[in-house]
Amino acid sequence: MSSQIDRVVTELRGRILAGDIPAGHRVVELQFAETLNVSRTPLRIALGELEKEGLLERLPTRGFRVRSFSVSQIADAVDVRGNLEGMAARLAAERGVTPELMGQLKDCLVRGQQLIDDALRHQQPIDAQQWSEMNLRFHTLLVEASGNTVLSSALHFLSQTPMAGAGALTLQGLIPALETVFIQRAQMDHVDCVQALEQKMGARAEAIMREHAFRSRENKKALIARLPRNALL
Question: How much is the pTM?
Answer without folding.
Answer: 0.78
